[in-house]
Design brief:
Layout lengths: L1 H21 L4 H20 L2 H6 L5 H16 L7 H15 L2 H4 L11 H16 L10 H16 L7 E3 L2 E2 L1 H9 L5 H12 L20 H11 L5 H14 E4 L2 E4 L15 E2 L2 E2 H13 L5 H10 L3 E3 L2 E3 L6 H13 L3
Antiparallel strand pairs: 1-2, 3-4, 5-6, 7-8
Helix pairs in contact: 1-14, 2-4, 2-15, 4-5, 4-7, 4-15, 7-8, 7-9, 9-10, 9-11, 11-12, 11-13, 13-15
């Protein structure tokens, strides 16, 4: 009897693992997975999940709403789900992002008020929403257009210097988020060149932060390449090739991204580092590669399995609801591999 139960248990585990690995290869399974993720995250954020994330991350509240909104915007391009409902979810996220509650986490006294992180991500989200089909169903179109115009003007007026995200803290990736959120013009190439010049990385890549201009890291490089995907300059092309050559190892179709070329410690930016490969860098790279037309099905399948998802009652979550930010990023990556 015990032997039979053990066999059934092993069979069940194998089926569970297979479903998780195969999810990105099946349109039906992937669509169902995304829909259930949205159901779970929508309720989690409405009931205060974003506020709890603020206790763990310096910009958790605002960032959670940005990534969820960006995921819904992209999902709206592919799904037959009710578009008005999706637009309402994006409207709610943007209302949170533009609120005093969100702004209170950032410093208004910086050269660019509220800093590069807030301005770059907020303006990027607004830009994506305004360009999407969902925007026609927004109940606050004029407010969001005005916010986008205001942020664009503010960023454009300060591009001549590297912008702080927090007092005395400069993160080049946040500056590039600002660049990406602007209309296409020659300013973008000049700003990128300026950012590259201040970095002393031996591979010619952009450094992680201003504490050491020689250190580039996989997590920020993946994010930088995501934002550079619509900025076609020779610098951007060269950096993508160098990033892939030095930081990405591909094994059986799975792309693993190193956090450091040499040894380094894990932190909030890197997430867990296993055998030198950063969890955040590897996850973000799925999103980034999709910007260049590459669907990382195998990599997503692996992370989908390792996240031990529970997919029941039209809700899907990872790691037993212990890491909400992981759920949000898994959603953002999953919509990127839809076709």
């Amino acid at each position: 009897m015990v032997s039979k139960l053990l066999k059934w248990a092993i069979l069940g585990i194998c089926i569970y693992l297979c479903f998780n690995i195969l999810t990105p290869y099946s349109s039906y399974l992937l669509n169902k997975s995304i829909r259930h993720q949205i159901n779970y995250l929508d309720k989690a954020l409405v009931t205060g999940g974003d506020t709890l994330l603020q206790l763990r991350y310096p910009e958790g509240y605002m960032f959670a709403n940005c990534i969820f909104a960006l995921s819904i915007i992209e999902y709206g391009q592919y799904t037959e789900d009710d578009k008005s409902t999706l637009a309402n979810k994006v409207d709610r996220c943007l209302s949170n992002i533009l609120s005093e509650r969100s702004l209170s986490s950032f410093d208004k006294q910086l050269t660019l008020p509220y800093g590069a992180f807030y301005n770059g991500w907020t303006n990027h989200t607004l830009k994506q929403y305004i360009a999407s089909d969902l925007f026609a169903l927004s109940k606050h179109q004029e407010r969001y257009r005005l916010a986008h115009e205001t942020l664009t003007t503010n960023i454009s007026q300060h591009w001549g210097n590297l912008l702080e995200s927090y007092p005395e803290s400069i993160w080049p990736a946040d500056n590039i988020a600002c660049i990406s959120s602007l209309p296409n013009d020659t300013t973008k190439g000049q700003w990128i060149a300026m950012i590259r010049q201040q970095s002393s990385n031996s591979n010619g890549l952009i450094n992680h932060d201003n504490t050491d201009p020689s250190i580039a890291r996989g997590s920020s490089l993946a994010l930088i390449q995501y934002f550079l995907s619509d900025i076609i300059t020779q610098d951007a092309v060269n950096m993508l090739t160098t990033y892939e050559d030095h930081y990405i190892d591909r094994v059986l179709g799975i792309s693993l991204v190193k956090e450091y070329i040499n040894d380094g410690e894990q932190d909030l930016d890197s997430g867990p580092i296993v055998f030198g490969y950063g969890s955040v860098a590897t996850l973000m790279n799925i999103r980034t590669q999709a910007q260049y037309g590459i669907r990382e099905h195998a990599t997503f399948g692996l992370l989908n399995m390792l996240g031990m998802p529970v997919n029941l009652f039209e809700k899907k979550y990872y790691l037993f609801k212990k890491e909400l930010m992981l759920d949000i990023f898994m959603l953002w990556c999953s919509v990127s591999i839809m076709e």
